[in-house]
Amino acid sequence: MEKLYDAGKARAIGVSNFSTKKLGDLLVVARVRPAVNQVECHPGWQQSKLHNFCQSTGIHVSAYSPLGSPGTPWMNSNVLEEPVITLIANKLGKTPAQVALCWNIQMGHSVLPKSLNEERIKQNLDVYDWSIPDDLLAMLTDIKQSLYILCCCIVIWCNQVSTKVFFYLVRAW
Ligand SMILES: NC(=O)c1ccc[n+]([C@@H]2O[C@H](COP(=O)([O-])OP(=O)(O)OC[C@H]3O[C@@H](n4cnc5c(N)ncnc54)[C@H](OP(=O)(O)O)[C@@H]3O)[C@@H](O)[C@H]2O)c1
């Protein structure tokens, strides 16, 4: 990628699904700093540690699955049904999806929602001329995080298999 960048064939280098550890390792050897890291990010998986790391190193965070991929059965995919989100949506006269997208935008991230529905596409674009007030924004930090739930599932699973497998997975991430 750096060769393509040097040759002017790429204007910037981006990475995806890089944890703070992987980004840290990359920054030690990279000549060209990645401009962007595309990761799953939404109020149910806020990626606070990664967000802070990227802010301090000047790497933009781009959020995929910003609505929490509603309907995905294997994760905490009920972001749009989170009581805090629906409460804020009702207070502001917005939809839960718009609140979820606005949270990411206010965090300084770009968002990549996907929809095949024209009305929802329009709704998802209508998030740039309003914002969530600070007091309501603070309430979103209380949402239980997907990673926490995922880790609990892995721990339960590993207790049945082997704790070594669990630590191997944690180190690999
Ligand atoms: N880099 C990576 O590793 C990676 C991994 C996963 C995904 N992605 C990318 O991220 C993008 C989005 O990811 P995603 O599809 O997993 O998650 P998402 O955008 O969070 O969720 C998409 C789902 O939300 C529904 N939806 C969209 N707008 C809505 C609204 N306003 N209200 C209610 N439901 C709404 C869609 O249904 P309808 O179509 O019926 O509206 C669809 O089922 C995709 O472009 C994907 O390629 C990247």
From TrEMBL:
Protein origin, superkingdom: Eukaryota
Q: Which residues form the signal peptide?
A: none
Q: Which Pfam families match?
A: Aldo_ket_red
The record's annotation in InterPro entries points to:
AKR (IPR020471), Aldo/ket_reductase_CS (IPR018170), NAD(P)_OxRdtase_dom_sf (IPR036812), NADP_OxRdtase_dom (IPR023210)
Cite the GO molecular-function annotations of the record: oxidoreductase activity
Q: Where is the NADP-dependent oxidoreductase domain?
A: 1-143
Q: In its UniProt entry, what is this protein called? A: NADP-dependent oxidoreductase domain-containing protein
